Amino acid sequence: MPPRLHPLTALTAAACTAVITTAAASWPLSLAVSLAAAVLAARAGVAGRVLPAAAVILAPLCVSLLVLHGLFFPEGHTILAQWGPARVTAEGLGFALDLASRTAACVLVLLLFSFTVSVPDLVAALAAKRVPPQFGFVLASTLTLVPAIAARLDRIRQAQEARGLVLRGGLLSRLGAVRLQMVPLVLGLIEDAGSRAQALDARGFGSPGPRTSYRDVDDPPAQRRFRAAALLLAACAVALRLALSWPAAGPS
Dihedrals φ, ψ of 205, to 5°? Predict the structure, then answer.
């Protein structure tokens, strides 16, 4: 049985993949990374959560990129259509699609990490590396925020339906019920934040001194070497991108 992937290895792989994809600026590579992330999500059994979340994030972003660069790209010369100052150019559409493919690759990779990583193992691994506990808590809270909000919204909806409020009608009915759901959601999140602050304070979260953890996350040497190689490769990709983008010196 292969060793379990260390949380820091998964984090390094996701972050370095996003950095390298962005630095490469190649839409075939971006599409390959997106496809690989979707396949890995399906194999991990989280495609039903990763893909809808990615669609919610990417749909408005891609539309804005197409509108902004497809209609108002200053360096576009091949005009496909024009309406007054707005003009659709082949160069603008190409730039927008390239940027959208890179963004989609990064979003899918990072969502795959967030939906597959074990948050307690990640916090324990960060504590073992002497990372400040505040950073680990912020990262863990970020990864668990969306599932916590979704679960609380579902409980609020069930409670309101039990009291006779119908939330499954048409679109207008759902939009009208948003206000009734947001108020208890925000109040509940504020109450949770206060409870967590009291619990962290009672456990000496802000106290100095050495810390221990009851979780022991195995970190094989091969994975440590992989993380070092991935970070080096990402740094080289960024350096190469900067070198290629640096304007050449003209004649004096």
Answer: -65, -40
CA angle 113, 119, 124 (to 5 degrees): 120
What Å distances lie between residue 118 and 108, 140, 250, CA to CA?
A: 18, 10, 53
Q: How far apart are CA 245 and CA 252, in angstroms?
A: 20
Overall size of the chain counted in residues = 252
- Which 3 state secondary structure label does DSSP give 82? strand
Both tokens assigned to 200: 């962290």
Helix (H) / strand (E) element for 164: namely none
Q: What is the pTM of this model?
A: 0.74
d(CA 153, CA 37): 28
* C-alpha span between 180 and 156 (Å, rounded): 9
Residue with tokens 């730039």: 95
For residue 25, the 8-state DSSP code is T
Task: Please write down the HEC assignment for all residues of 219-232.
Answer: CCHHHHHHHHHHHH
Helix (H) or strand (E) holding 83: strand 79-83
**HSE, side-chain direction, 13 A CA sphere, residue 55:** 7
Query: CA–CA separation, 19 vs 51, rounded Å?
Result: 21
What pLDDT shows up at residue 29?
92
pLDDT at residue number 1: 38
N-terminal to C-terminal alpha carbon distance within the chain? 64
Amino acid found at 90:
A
